Amino acid sequence: MSVVSLRSPATARRASAVYCAVYGSGAPLVMLHGIGSSGVMFQPLIDEFCSRHQIIVPDLRGHGHSRRLPAADSIERLADDVSDVLALLRCGPCTVIGHAEGAAVALQLARQQPAAVDGLILLEPRLTVERERAGGVSGMLRALVGSQAVGAPLAASATALLGRFACREWISAIRQPVLSVARVDAGTTGRALIRQLRRRDDLVIAAGEAVLTPPNRRLVAAMRAWLGRGAATAPTENSEAQ
């Protein structure tokens, strides 16, 4: 593993440093965690894919080893940070994997840097505020940090960021192929947004099925097949989630 501590370009909008770990070599995979987590959450997938891929795992600002940075005020700001990481590493077009709110960052990156992103894998994507499921979001974050007192501000942060993320205005214009992995009980608004992606394959997982810890063997197999068949260069047929 190597570690990159990104020193910002000469621009007023960046803060000082974003932590990023890099593993392996090969076609690059960028892994973006959600609010309240860190790159450590991807260790099961890193172990599965680092033998054939260069794995790039930033800690988003305000999280993990980047927690001393000012918190992001928008999904766009988080995507800017990831764009800077990719520029520093000088890697070619990447497949970007985003979990929860990290999926929103991945989509924003694909929108603003289309040449840098040749495919997207969205794991349990959280792209908007599901009002009827707000309690579930808060509960998930509390489980991650182990404290209701800490979990509540994180849930509020996630809600604020997604509340300003107006992806419904442009999501149908995303051209990169996408593998969407969602729970069968995912919120209806988020699923409707995902269905607007034109070049999309879907994997539906059960409500209680683990995704990353331990690694979901069905997910790993689907990712390997999707990556291995040149999904980032050829159109895919949509398979609607039931």
Description of the structure:
The chain is 33% helix and 21% strand. The chain has 242 residues and is an alpha/beta fold. Strands 1-2-4-3-5-6-7-8 form an eight-stranded mixed beta sheet, with helices on both faces. Strand 7, helix 6 and strand 8 form a beta-alpha-beta unit. Helix 2 (75-89) packs across helix 3 (101-112) and helix 4 (134-145) crosses helix 5 (148-163). Mean pLDDT is 82; it is low at 5-15, 132-151 and 231-242.
- Specify the CATH homologous superfamily: Alpha/Beta hydrolase fold, catalytic domain
Radius of gyration: 17 Å
Report the β-strand fraction as a percent range. 15-25%
Distance linking N and C termini: 40 Å
Biggest β-sheet description: 8 strands, mixed
In the CATH scheme, the class would be: Alpha Beta
Order of helices and strands: EEEHEHEHEHHEHEH
Tell me the CATH architecture. Answer: 3-Layer(aba) Sandwich
How many separate structural domains?
Answer: 1
CATH fold label = Rossmann fold
Tally the helices: 7
Helix content: 25-40%
Mean pLDDT: 82
Low-pLDDT parts are 5-15, 132-151, 231-242
Structural class computed from helices and strand pairing: alpha/beta
Beta strand count: 8
Strand line-up in the sheet with most strands: 1-2-4-3-5-6-7-8
* Cα shape: globular
